[in-house]
Amino acid sequence: MSPPNFKNHTQTSESFQPKQSSQQKWSKRANMKEKNKKKDEAYRFRYGNYHQYYGYRNHGQMDSRMSCMKQEWFSGKDVLDIGCNAGHFTLAIAKYFTPSSIIGIDIDHTLIKMAMKNVRHYTTPTYDFEEEDFPVSFAVCHGPIAQMMDAKGRYPAGNFPFNVQFVQANFVLPSDELVDMQDQHFDTVLCLSLTKWVHLNWGDIGIKRMFRRIFNLLRPGGNLILEAQLFKSYNKRKNITVKMYQHYNQIELLPEMFNDYLLKDVGFETCDLIDIPAHSSQGFSRPMYLFTKAASAEMKRKHVFYHYSSDSSYEECDNEELSD
Ligand SMILES: C[S@@+](CC[C@H](N)C(=O)[O-])C[C@H]1O[C@@H](n2cnc3c(N)ncnc32)[C@H](O)[C@@H]1O
């Protein structure tokens, strides 16, 4: 009698694969799903367009950067806030510093819609509607309604909330020619926590275009308020897209060179450190600078005082728990 043929039934030690239990398979699949979800989210928010940004940055408190803002930069002025997110900083400026007008722009249209809705949180329940015989609940539930315009179809200047507008747009223009065609429209431009996202998504070309566009949009004597992220914080976001990775590796104009670039190449006359507002998370505690365009055509640099990362606590910020 010949021995039974086990050939097809035996497994050598090399080919032996322990069978995965359904529990193991399930957790592997769950891990994959979680990873993909994280990748999708990173991609969705690749512009720093976080929808809960102010929630985790400010925890319902007044933004600490507000304390170093000065009335003279805003009151009666035309202001642009680039990368306004859900509009809380823009709205706080519009309400407390009474600019003649302030436009918040953001690349993310959902954030712009949120910003428009957020206006209602800054209008007090007893807002003028009382005088007009509207119930307070109307303002609370629906936000402000249209106010009387003047004969030229304009709202009274500096009259919150009619001094604020939100617009969806990419501030980075597709060509240098378009940057050169910009007219002077603004007295003050806010560029807060934006540079990293422009730099990673559009590279050195994009950040340079953004700075030059800001300069061209400013009237003589106008101000740029700049809060830039540190280069070391770019690392965490560089792998979101292939383009971002390529841009990251090609960066020559490092953030610590922005101040020199803005003064020497773009043409701002002065640069002053405004402050490094405190924040419980060091990643959010960054220097804020004021760049001023010469009041006359003569672009003479009077004084330069800038400082970058000489403060050790600021240097530490790679250990941040939270930042953008
Ligand atoms: C981290 S948030 C900063 C929000 C706000 N400036 C602040 O500091 O409170 C960056 C914002 O810039 C917007 N953003 C990124 N690239 C932009 C672009 N090219 N044009 C307009 N907005 C942009 C994002 O959508 C996001 O809302």
TrEMBL record:
Matching PROSITE patterns: BIN3_SAM
Low complexity composition-biased segments: 13-25
InterPro entries (alphabetical): Bin3-like, Bin3_C, BIN3_SAM-bd_dom, Methyltranfer_dom, SAM-dependent_MTases_sf
Annotated region described as Disordered, given as residue ranges: 1-38
EC top class, as a word: transferase
Residue ranges occupied by any Bin3-type SAM domain in the UniProt entry: 63-296
GO BP, sorted A to Z: methylation; snRNA modification
One of the Pfam families matching this protein, by short name: Methyltransf_31
Coiled coil ranges: none
Sequence ranges of Polar residues compositional bias: 1-12
Keyword NAD: no
Keywords associated with the record: Methyltransferase, S-adenosyl-L-methionine, Transferase
Enzyme Commission (EC) number: 2.1.1.-
Example GO molecular function: O-methyltransferase activity
Superkingdom as given in the UniProt entry: Eukaryota
Family, similarity comment: Belongs to the methyltransferase superfamily.
Protein name (Swiss-Prot/TrEMBL): RNA methyltransferase
